[in-house]
Design goal:
The structure holds two protein chains of two kinds.
Chain A: H1 4-23, H2 29-50, E1 57-60, E2 63-66, H3 69-88, H4 96-114, H5 118-133, H6 139-165, H7 182-199, H8 206-215, H9 218-224, H10 230-244, H11 246-269, H12 273-292, H13 297-328, H14 339-342, H15 344-357, H16 364-376, H17 381-406, H18 421-439, H19 445-450
Antiparallel strand pairs in A: 1-2
Chain B: H1 2-30, H2 36-64, E1 69-79, E2 82-90, H3 92-115, H4 122-141, H5 145-163, H6 170-201, H7 216-231, H8 239-242, H9 248-257, H10 262-269, H11 271-276, H12 278-300, H13 305-326, H14 329-348, H15 353-364, H16 380-391, H17 396-426, H18 432-451
Antiparallel strand pairs in B: 1-2
Classes of the chains: A mainly alpha, B mainly alpha.
């Protein structure tokens, strides 16, 4: 039996739900969204359980799919992240358009982690960028998304052309022989640009901060959470650079870490919640990318675990940010203060999820960060101190946000500030999974597979 | 038989506090049920149970004739050659620290159950207290530095949250952020040292410190920097009086008893490394003496009881650092335990001091004289100069603030460039904040129209 059947079904189910969601009344949107993500999660779970009990490679024309420990570790948090978004998004922000795009992004994200050759991966990435570009239709935020996602799409398309010219477009990743061709430099540059832009690594963090500041909604979060973007760095950029010139990797990692430090510092000086969160996420994503381009296997595994953890951690923390902003209908710090008095549970979730996203000990993020740290030692003491600085500044940034939003003179009390049951369930579930992964890392397929 | 007993008792004792924390946390997050009695029973039974188990383990260790015992609970992470082992270390130092932890948490917990009765932050306080107890427990019992770091971090977070306990006022929140900032800054040293140790010895067990090669001096220096924050060593002493903004009982347990003593405790664990390098011994002694001088001098000119006690604590920590540098480890342990108990008692009694002083004066029939200090014998000019310096706390906080503001200026410039670029690229002619201001004005206008 081919274990990829349920995995591909998991990626196709959200597409079916796009059709269903378009037909149903807006009253059932949340239920449909949760159901779609839950079905997808169930199928992904079946694949994880079946892994190792049959064929795990499948070919559909030029597209090749493969299910391994990386896909196993990422498919579950990815589907859960969408389920959490569907559960906790404020009622006013939940539209047919948003649910459709959530399903589309989930499907593209799942196909990207299942991809086993460049054409499959880049196609999935392009589709993901297209979904993200059309998330917001109007205003500056819509324009920003179209502009920046457009840059990634153009770079991906150009890389397809060059890879096709090099005759490695349809070859499975494990069979590609990288030669020292001139085209390889071009592909690396194009993919690097596309990935950094898609992930919003500084200075491309500009679209994340600007868009989230203007929209403040859960729909922007869908474009920001790293559903896509990391896989091309792991499967294409890193091996290409390794073959071309390993010294470039040694230079690029500190540069990315510098970007992570800058983003974390930018998060620390903002005077509005949405921008702070965006820079914080940008910093985490730069750290993931730095780990992905680390030539050591430990760094790459750490990056994959941090990616999986960020999928869930950033979604959970981002939603607490969205929910907080929805409660005061603003994102400026001046509008907040003393929210802990009105909604203590939200305060606690905000703190735990923020800490989890930035890799506090006892959470899955810490496992990823610890492995990246240990991998980075091979690059010398400077990258090591940079990573530690990133983690410390990120932690400080989360604490600053917490103190600003939840402590201080309480804002005027309004009805409905306390968390609703569905929000509690979504946040509590996320916290439990992140802590379980941190306390028992052996349940993460990537760790158990390499133990 | 005795060693098996030690293993079992320590494992159960180390699970009790985290379980109580999870129970209280889940109750707070998932339900609206609140009962002071439940919290009181949960905490009393946890601390008392843990104390009995730890004392039993100590007795078992003594009877076994072993000086220390490693309990290997297996790998937490195993990835190729890399492994993060969960190993517990039971030795006289960890038994003493655990006993101190549970006795003081129990006593201060009992005191706080009355002190904070019907306070809106009652549950929050005890939640943080369980965080502290778990953090200390992990840090004290860990045989590896990475597991110790997990406890160290829990301690830092709970400490910052308790400084900001009275969260409706701005000052506690600002001081909590300052405190946490110092912790994070020094954590850079600690975490870097742990990773460097992992890389050099393939393991971060404390017993492997002697295996460090040429990098041992750098690793040792990083560890010492990491220990400076929690202990309030010079030039980071300023956070300690700021941290006294929290409730008296949290000040007693954190800054009088447990949290500050984690700094000399870490040095004790690093003793093989310190003994191997004269440079480290000199650095530790110098920092200790400097802290002692600074804290004694600045503490003299404080006008409130809690700040004076905070500086007194820092001065004592400075002395403990000197003991460690001299290799007098037993004295350090005795000093730590004695100081922790005496200082936490003193801080708990702080609100009654003024009243007690008045009673004393009434009994004496005269004012209690505190004017016979050594500075009275100095020339007036020098005395005034030193007084000014002490009042400004040796300008240490000002210096740190100048560094922070300089860095902030650069980051703000990048932020401004980022915002302008976004506006140029998207055609937005107004920054988002003004857009939101307008929209909130529109919402207000709509609300008033609908009300009308």
């Amino acid at each position: 039996m081919n274990v990829l059947v349920p995995a591909i079904l998991a990626a196709l189910v959200p597409l079916v739900f796009i059709v269903i969601v378009s037909k149903i009344s807006s009253r059932y949107l949340r239920a449909a969204g949760v159901l779609g993500a839950a079905l997808s999660f169930g199928l992904a779970l079946v694949t994880v359980l079946l892994q190792g009990h049959g064929e795990s490679i499948s070919t559909l024309g030029p597209f090749v799919f493969h299910f391994d420990a990386v896909a196993a570790s990422l498919s579950l948090p990815m589907t859960l992240a969408i389920a959490v978004i569907m559960l906790a998004t404020p009622q006013k922000q939940l539209t047919t358009h948003m649910v459709n795009h959530a399903m589309g992004l989930l499907s593209a994200g799942l196909f990207a982690i299942l991809a086993d050759n460049p054409v499959t991966l880049i196609t999935a990435e392009i589709i993901s960028a297209l979904w993200a570009a059309s998330l917001i239709r109007e205003g500056y935020q819509g324009r920003a998304l179209r502009l920046f996602m457009g840059i990634s799409i153009v770079a991906y398309l150009a890389s397809i052309v060059v890879l096709g010219h090099m005759n490695i477009l349809v070859q499975p990743f494990s069979q590609i022989e990288y030669t020292l061709a001139q085209e390889m430099y071009i592909v690396t540059g194009l993919l690097g640009l596309a990935v950094m832009n898609r992930l919003g690594v500084f200075p491309w963090s500009i679209w994340m901060a600007g868009t989230f500041e203007h929209s403040r909604g859960a729909q922007t979060l869908l474009a920001m959470v790293p559903m896509a973007g990391v896989a091309p760095a792991i499967y294409l950029v890193e091996p290409m650079l390794e073959a071309l010139n390993p010294h470039m990797l040694h230079t690029l990692v500190p540069v990315l870490l510098g970007a992570a430090v800058t983003s974390a510092a930018l998060g620390l000086v903002q005077n509005n919640l949405s921008r702070s969160f965006a820079f914080l996420l940008s910093s985490v994503e730069a750290l993931i990318l730095a780990g992905a381009l680390d030539s050591s296997p430990m760094g790459v595994t750490g990056s994959e675990i941090l990616w999986a953890s960020t999928l869930l951690g950033a979604t959970g923390f981002g939603l607490t940010v969205v929910v907080s902003m929805a409660r005061v209908n603003d994102c400026k710090f001046s509008a907040f203060g003393g929210l802990a008095a009105h909604t203590p549970a939200l305060a606690l979730f905000f703190l735990i999820l923020g800490a989890a996203m930035t890799g506090i000990p006892g959470t899955t993020g810490f496992v990823g960060a610890e492995l990246i740290l240990n991998g980075s030692v091979s690059h010398g003491i400077f990258p090591l101190i940079l990573i530690v600085t990133v983690l410390c500044v990120q932690g400080l940034s989360v604490m600053r946000l917490f103190f600003t939003i939840f402590y201080g003179t309480p804002v005027k009390a309004a009805h409905g500030m306390e968390l609703m049951t569905r929000e509690r369930v979504a946040f509590f579930g996320t916290v439990i999974i992140l802590i379980l992964g941190g306390l028992l890392p052996s349940i993460i397929p990537l760790i158990s597979a390499t133990a | 038989m005795w060693l098996e007993l030690v293993d079992n008792l320590i494992i159960i004792a180390s699970l009790l506090t985290p379980l109580a924390l999870l129970t209280l946390g889940a109750t707070m997050l998932l339900t609206r049920y609140r009962s002071e009695k439940l919290v009181h029973v949960l905490l009393s039974s946890t601390f008392l149970g843990s104390l009995i188990l730890v004392l039993g383990a100590g007795f078992g260790l003594f009877m076994s004739g072993e000086s220390s015992r490693l309990i290997d609970l297996g790998p937490l992470i195993q990835l190729g050659s890399y492994h993060l082992e969960l190993v517990l270390l039971v030795d006289p130092l960890s038994i003493i620290m655990l006993t101190l932890n549970f006795i003081l948490c129990g006593v201060v917990g009992y005191f706080s159950s009355k002190y904070l009765h019907r306070d809106e932050g009652y549950y929050r306080f005890f939640m943080m207290m369980l965080f502290l107890a778990t953090g200390v427990e992990l840090a004290v019992i860990a045989a590896g530095f990475d597991v110790m770091f997990i406890g160290w971090e829990l301690l830092g977070i709970s400490s910052a949250l308790l400084v900001a306990f009275f969260y409706r006022r701005q000052a506690p929140t600002q001081n909590a952020f300052w405190t946490y900032g110092i912790y994070r800054l020094t954590d850079i040293g600690l975490l870097s040292a742990i990773i460097a140790l992992h890389h050099a010895t393939d393991d971060v067990l404390m017993s492997n410190l002697g295996l460090l090669g040429s990098s041992s001096l750098v690793v040792g220096a990083l560890f010492i920097f990491g220990a400076m924050g929690k202990g309030g060593l010079f030039p980071f002493t300023g956070w300690l009086p700021r941290a006294m903004e929290g409730p008296t009982s949290s000040s007693a347990i954190f800054y009088g008893a447990l949290s500050v003593h984690m700094s000399p405790f870490l040095l004790l664990r690093l003793s093989p490394l310190i003994e191997a390098h004269k440079e480290l011994q000199i650095a530790i002694a110098a920092l200790g003496v400097l802290t002692l001088l600074h804290a004694s001098m600045v503490g003299r000119v404080q006008t409130d009881a809690k700040s004076t006690m905070a500086y007194a604590s820092a001065a004592q920590i400075g002395i403990m650092w000197v003991w460690v540098a001299l290799g007098w480890y037993e004295l350090t342990i005795i000093h730590m335990v004695g100081h922790a108990i005496a200082r936490s008692w003193q801080i708990l009694r702080a609100p009654s001091f003024i009243q007690e002083r008045r009673i004393l004066e009434r009994m004496q029939g005269a004012r209690v004289n505190h004017d016979r200090h050594v500075e009275r014998f100095m020339p007036a000019k020098l005395e005034r100069f030193l007084y000014h310096i002490a009042l400004q706390r040796w300008f240490t906080d000002d210096f740190l603030l100048v560094v922070v503001h300089t860095l902030k200026k650069g980051v703000l410039w990048i932020n401004s460039a980022d915002t302008q670029l976004f506006q140029a690229l998207t055609g937005s002619d107004k920054p988002a904040t003004s857009t939101e201001e307008e929209s909130s004005v529109e919402i207000q206008a709509k609300k008033s129209t609908s009300k009308a």
